[in-house]
Amino acid sequence: MRTFSVKNICAAIAVPFIAMYVMPVQAQTEYDLYIAGTKVTSTNCGDLSVINGVTGKATYTPATKTLILENATINGGEENGITSNTEGLTIKIAGTNNIISDEYTALQVDKSATITGGGVLNLQAESSSALYVRITDLTIDNCTVNAKGLYGIAGINGTYDEKVTIRNADVTAEGTKKGSVCDLAGLILEGCNITQPAGAKFDAEIHAVVLDGEKVKSKVVITKDPTSIDSPNADAVAAKGIYTLQGVGLQGTFESLPKGVYIVNGKKIIKK
C-alpha cells in the first residue's frame, strides 16, 4: 500500500501555484492616443466605452490608425476629450458625435490627422480650444464639424506651419473670446467657401479668419459648394457593384438610377 507523507502532499499542492506565477504574461500594447484622459491600449481599443466619460460606439484599430465614432459622446471633464500623437490618424465619424471638455481642449491633434466619414462631429470646450491643431496638419473631409470654445479651430500662434484643409465639408467655428479660426499658418478650402460672416476671409499675416482686418470671434460658417463632387468612400472604391459616394450599396441597374455621381465597380461615374 502506497503512503504519502505530509511533506509530499505539500509539495504536490505547491507545484501548480509555482507554475501559475512563472507563466509568461502577455504585455499590453499602448498607443499614442488618449480618450478622456485615459490611454488607448490593446486591452480597451476594441470598446472604448469602457473608459469613464465615453458612451456610444467608439473603437480604435491600430493597424490602420483609425478611430471610429458612431453616435458617441466623449466627456473629458477636466481632461482633453481626445488627444492624439499618432501620425496619420483617421477619425471616422458616423451619425452625430459629441466631444466635450470643461477645462481643456475637446480635440487636440499633435500629429497629422484626418476627420472623415460623412457624419457630424460637435466639439465644445468651455475654457480652451474646441479643435487644437498643434504644430501639424489637419484635414476635414466630407463630413460636418462644429467647434465652439474660447478658440474655435486654432493652432499655437500661426508661425509653426499648422495648416487646416477643409474639403467638401460643412464646418462652423466659434471662438467666443480668442478667435473662431485663428493662429494657423494656412486655411485651405477645397469645394467649400466661407459664407458667414459675409466678406470674411483667411488672412495669412494675421493667421486668422478676419473681417475688415479684425479677427472674427463670432460664428464662422464654411459651407460645402453644392456643385462640388465628393471624394468617394474608400470602402466603396474597393467593392464591386453600385454605391453612393458615402459607400451605401444600391440595388437595381445603373440605368434606373437618378442623375448623380456613383461608384460603379470601383470607378466614379457621373450620370447626367
Overview of the structural elements:
The chain is mainly beta. It folds into two domains: 195 residues; 38 residues, no CATH class. The chain has two helices and 24 strands. It has an 18-stranded mixed β-sheet that branches. It has a three-stranded antiparallel β-sheet with strand order 18-19-20, with no helix packed on it. A hairpin with a 4-residue loop joins strand 18 and strand 19. The longest helix is centred in the first third of the chain and has 17 residues. The model has no long low-confidence stretch (mean pLDDT 87).
* Ends apart, CA distance between termini: 95 Å
How large is the share of residues in beta strands? over 45%
Question: How many discrete domains?
Answer: 2
Stretches with pLDDT under 50, minimum 5 residues: none
Helix content range: under 10%
Brief descriptors of the model:
272 residues; mainly beta; 18-stranded mixed β-sheet; three-stranded antiparallel β-sheet
Task: Summarize the helices and strands and which ones pair or pack.
Elements: H1 6-22, E1 30-35, E2 38-41, E3 54-61, E4 66-75, E5 82-84, E6 89-94, E7 96-101, E8 107-109, E9 113-116, E10 120-125, E11 129-133, E12 137-141, E13 144-154, E14 163-167, E15 170-182, E16 186-190, E17 192-196, E18 201-203, E19 208-211, E20 214-215, E21 220-224, H2 234-238, E22 242-243, E23 260-264, E24 267-271
Parallel strand pairs: 4-6, 4-7, 5-8, 6-9, 7-10, 8-11, 9-12, 10-13, 11-13, 12-14, 13-15, 14-16
Antiparallel strand pairs: 1-2, 1-5, 3-4, 15-21, 17-21, 18-19, 19-20, 22-23, 23-24
